[in-house]
Amino acid sequence: MFSNKSLQLINTSKKQFFVFGTTLVWIFLLILIVSEAFNTRDRDIERAQVQTENISKLLEKELLSVFKLIDHSLFHIRDQYLLNLKKSHLENLNSLLVEEKNRIPNLLSFKLIDQQGNLFADNLPIKKQVNYNDRDYFQNFIKNQTDHLFISDPLMSRTSNTWVIVLARPIFDAKKRFLGLVIGTIETDYFQKMISQVNIGKDGLISISNQNDLHLARIPISKELVGSKILIGPFVSGFKEAQISFTDINFQSPIDHKRRIGGALFNSHYNFIVKVAYSTDELLLGWKKRAIIILSVFFIIVIGFYIFLYRFLISLMEIEIREQHSLQTAKLASLGEMSSAIAHEINNPLAAIAGQVHLLKRLISSSDPDYILKSNEYLEKINNNVKRITKIIFGLKSFSRDSFNDPLKIVSLKSILDESLSLCEERLKNNAITVALNTFSNIEIECKEIQLEQVFVNLINNSFDAIKDKDEKWIKITVTELDSTVEIIFQDSGLGLPQEIIDRVMEPFFTTKVNGQGTGLGLSISAGIIKNHQGKFFIDKSNKHTTFCITLPKKITS
Predict the structure, then answer these.
(1) Which of these, 131, 129, 99, lies nearest to 114 by C-alpha position?
(2) Is 164 helix (H, G, I), strand (E, B) or coil?
(3) Within-domain flag for 508
(4) DSSP label at 214?
(5) Torsion angle, CA of 344/349/355/361, rounded to 10 degrees?
(6) Is 196 in the same domain as 262?
(7) Cα gap 467→446, rounded to integer Å
(8) Do the Cβ atoms of 204 and 277 come closer than 8 Å?
């Protein structure tokens, strides 16, 4: 398990920004997918409406063909009737009606009705006397004696006992006197058979009605509705007002209460309405399945991504923890290497303090007239040695603490170098190694102070280990300020590194020291620290002496 402090590593601003950014991308993609899904839905609806318009026009064409053919026969029968009337050959009328009926198989019958409404000629055998003066088509011509085609509402035939519609034209003599009617009757079953041949889906709708909203035929089949008034929507009156022939419709049926999408066509010449509509549920079923599959795949990918992201961030956290541990291990290893020198450096002022205390005790027991003056002198020396020990311990404490999560701060580069040299001072002095640090102006850089101090101490220690047994022993540190960067060069009296060592010296756990004297982490961790500070860390191969170069920006970009 990780400690709370370690778990906080995952909540750094970069990781939070990354998670937030990817979440925004997923949300944006989801919006695009949903938007495209609804666009696809709209396109499916548009295609359905185009299809319903085409089907409506095909049905209209079929109806117009039948109505025109019947109307043409009505003209022919009327003309023949008037001709036979003049020639007194009325006995040929029934034969004429049969002949015209045979030309139109879809027609039930042709009939001739006199001015009193009595049936006097029929292509079917006349079994009884029938009067039609109460029919709306007969009354229409009694009231309005003009020559026009009249199409009746659905009605029950008095001769065949089936639902029919009647197409009627008046018969006038040469003096415009009303002589009767010639009519053709079509069974509503004909319209039902015609629309039944069209596949509109299980719950799709095709209906034919007249301008009075009276039902002629319908799919799904509802024979009991023939002749009934059906409220098929405000678009019927809209047809007449806007003088349009087709409109898209989206409605809920008052009969079976199913919602449908399609179109309605109005023929103003013969005053009939063809309505074709797909069931909304059936039409959008495929779209719903596709949308569910796409969204399911999307959310599976998103969930998989965030599982991967979580594991990836945990892996990063573990790497950071290992890096932190390695950093601390290398730091403590450096302290271990310097421990004898540090102990000696602390032991010297302690010995001085002990000597001053001994002299102070002797002074107290004597009667020396300069007692006060000499006491102050001894106490001042003791105080200076205590300050020296305090400085050493403070430096060790700062250097050895975990600096992995330190914030970036603006720090004087000279103070970092001075602290690094103070930790190594006694060790270098005891081995007669001289250190030269060039004079430079006060340069401030943004950094993690303790981490840079670790890099500098590591380079000084490496130089110490490399030259301590040589005749010529020196370390030179050169600081050069550029426009936005600082260059720090560590050079010692060593004669450089072989090429095969240079190629591997930055690798973790690689060391040229004997077993037990190095971890092999110093330079690899130093390189990682400089990289995290957006700097460069490399070996100058062109110099005959061992030279490490560091370039650091004065200000770290976010």
Answers:
(1) 131
(2) strand
(3) yes
(4) B
(5) -140
(6) yes
(7) 32
(8) yes
- 449-467 helix and 285-365 helix, angle to the nearest 10 degrees: 60
Residues 6+ apart with CB under 8 A from 468: 431, 433
The beta strands (E) that lie in 87-140 are given as 109-114, 119-122
Rounding to the nearest 10 degrees, give the CA dihedral for residues 106, 112, 118, 120. -100
| 245 and 324 part of one domain | no
Sign of CA dihedral 488, 493, 498, 501: negative
The answer to whether 110 touches 184, Cβ cutoff 8 Å, is yes
Looking at 259, 283, 307, the residue that finishes a domain is 283
What count of other Cβ atoms lies within 10 Å of the Cβ of residue 501?
Answer: 12
Give backbone dihedrals phi and psi of 273, rounded to 5 degrees, phi first. Answer: -125, 130
pTM of this structure: 0.58
Q: Dmax of the chain from CA atoms?
A: 179
Q: Which residues of 519-534 are buried (b: 16+ CB within 10 A; e: fewer)?
A: bbbbbbbbbbbbeebe
For the segment 356-382, what is each residue's pLDDT rounded down to a tens digit?
676 666 666 666 666 666 667 667 667
- Which structural domain range is residue 33 located in? 10-283
Q: What is the 8-class DSSP label of residue 125? A: -
Nearest to 186 by CA among 209, 207, 210, 165: 165
Residue-wise pLDDT for 159-188, tens only, equals 888 899 999 999 998 888 899 999 999 998
Answer whether 518's CB lies under 8 Å from 333's CB: yes
**Cα gap 97→74, rounded to integer Å:** 10
- The CA–CA distances, whole Å, from 1 to 9, 318, 324, 552 equal 14, 11, 16, 36
Domain-embedded: residue 93: yes
